Write a sequence for this structure.
């Protein structure tokens, strides 16, 4: 796997309140890395800093180039982002939302190419959206919208996707399908995925590496088996947990 993202010594504060403390990570092509930690641990802030949405101190390099030296249009062709709560216009059709993912490639005056249409058709078929392409966004369920927003990311043809709680609004069936899709994309297309999640078991079943955050600092990083230790998780989350290993993967159960 080739190195795609390298970040180290990341500090960030909202006013006088530190949110990230010397955080850092590596992300390679074909790899899924999951960010775990309780609310307020810095997961979303770290993702936004890695995208340049927040001006953090430290070193952030994409493909060996400092983040600040990337042209934003060029960067958008390489890296895509799915926030926790994507915005949309209620009257927009599904096809309109997908088309926005091609914006970094549009020619002057927003002229689309034939390739833009081909990419949209391919992603719509991949995500099973063909039958709802002309539906309005306000006529869809939260789970359907989440798949459409994921599709908007994929039509950018990125080399990396940064996802903030991507399983939000998805029922169990679509969570499984999302995991299978991400695994397929990383395996076949060498897409790199950085994913913030509250779901320990979803992350454990999917991620190659896990980074566990506590109060903005990296508590532990490594394979799911190394990181998801009951005593470590209890210290980070403040909840007693038990771990069950099944087919080489850890699963976490909280004590109630």
């Amino acid at each position: 796997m080739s190195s795609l993202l390298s970040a180290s010594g990341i500090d960030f504060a909202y006013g006088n309140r530190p949110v990230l403390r010397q955080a850092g990570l590596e992300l390679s092509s074909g790899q899924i890395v999951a960010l775990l930690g309780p609310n307020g641990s810095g997961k979303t802030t770290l993702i936004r800093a890695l995208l340049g949405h927040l001006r953090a101190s430290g070193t952030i390099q994409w493909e060996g180039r400092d983040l600040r030296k990337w042209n934003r249009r060029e960067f958008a062709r390489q890296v895509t982002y799915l926030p926790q709560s994507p915005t949309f216009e209620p009257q927009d059709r599904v096809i309109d939302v997908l088309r926005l993912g091609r914006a970094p490639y549009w020619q002057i005056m927003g002229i689309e190419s034939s390739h833009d249409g081909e990419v949209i058709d391919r992603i719509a078929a991949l995500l099973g959206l063909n039958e709802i392409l002309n539906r309005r966004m306000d006529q869809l369920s939260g789970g359907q919208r989440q798949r459409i927003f994921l599709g908007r990311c994929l039509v950018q043809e990125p080399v990396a996707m940064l996802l903030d709680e991507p399983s939000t609004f998805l029922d169990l069936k679509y969570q499984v399908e999302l995991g299978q899709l991400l695994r397929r994309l990383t395996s076949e297309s060498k897409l790199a995925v950085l994913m913030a999640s509250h779901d320990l078991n979803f992350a454990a079943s999917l991620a190659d590496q896990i980074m566990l955050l506590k109060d903005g600092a990296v508590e532990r990083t490594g394979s799911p088996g190394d990181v998801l230790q009951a005593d470590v998780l209890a210290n980070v989350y403040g909840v007693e947990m038990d771990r069950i290993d099944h087919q080489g993967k850890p699963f976490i159960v909280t004590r109630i």
